[in-house]
Amino acid sequence: MTTKRTSRAVAKSVPSLHPHVLVLHGPNLNLLGSREPGHYGLATLDDINRVLVSRGEAVNAQVETFQNNHEGALIDRIHQAAHDQVDFIVINPAGYTHTSIALRDALAATAIPFVEVHLSNIYAREPFRHHSYFSDLAVGVVSGLGAHGYELALEYALRHLPNRTSHGSQKTEKAH
Ligand code: DQA
Fold first, then answer.
1. Domain for residue 101, yes or no?
2. What Cα–Cα distance (Å) separates residue 29 from each residue in 25, 65, 124, 149, 176?
3. What is the CATH number of the domain that holds 34?
4. Which residues approach ligand 1 with their CB closer than 6 A?
5. Residue 13, in any domain of the structure
6. Atom 7 (ligand 1): residue with closest C-alpha?
7. β-sheet bridge partners, residue 89
8. Does the N-terminal or the C-terminal CB of the chain have fewer CB atoms within 10 Å?
9. Nearest 10 degrees: CA dihedral of 111, 114, 120, 124?
């Protein structure tokens, strides 16, 4: 059986003492600000990313953001995250939430803990949005709190990151 710890050890490269969080945005989220503001609000993706990156800087954490409209590009970025020793992922899979077994499999394969974020409350919308291929693997889900949901997910990640030692090994703190 492959444990989370084993698969991260396989992906080991240069260890960093700084927490490393990757924020992934799925398809159409590049249009935030003008896209269906009744569901997604008026903040642009740049607005959202700026807040997250500066929060990371304030606590000496590396917060990287990545948006793509293509499933394969998001999958490749998750594989890369394992090589880069990313500690935690915050992901809004957007439309892929409801369709993508391949994206789910990428997160399962790398075993990097993640929080699933949705700007809108997917359970208060059309029935096809009620099912997520990610939620049962996620540490948690934030849905319906708009852009603030990303900040809450990042705050959670920063509090519950594995403790790194100066030798690069990790002690995982059980969240909750
Ligand atoms: C979304 C909800 C999805 O159903 C939708 O396809 C999106 C955005 C959200 O953030 O509310 O693109 O993930």
1. yes
2. 6, 12, 19, 14, 29
3. 3.40.50.9100
4. 28, 92, 94-95, 97, 118-120, 122, 129
5. no
6. 94
7. 22, 114
8. N
9. 60
Q: Which domain holds residue 25?
A: 20-159
pLDDT digits (tens, 9 = 90+) for 110-152: 999 999 999 999 999 999 999 999 999 999 999 999 999 999 9
Residue 50 annotated as lining a ligand binding site: no
15, part of any domain: no
Q: Please, what is the end-to-end C-alpha distance for the chain in angstroms?
A: 25
Which positions ≥6 away from 111 have C-beta within 8 Å? 2, 3, 4, 7, 8
Ligand 1 centroid from CA 159, angstroms: 26
Q: pTM, whole model, 2 decimals?
A: 0.85
In a domain, 46, yes or no: yes
Count of domains for the chain: 1
Token pair of 10, please? Answer: 């396989």
pLDDT digits 0-9 by tens, 68-117: 999 999 999 999 999 999 999 999 999 999 999 999 999 999 999 999 99
170 pLDDT tier (thresholds 50, 70, 90): very low
Whether the CB-CB separation of 120 and 39 falls below 8 Å is answered with yes
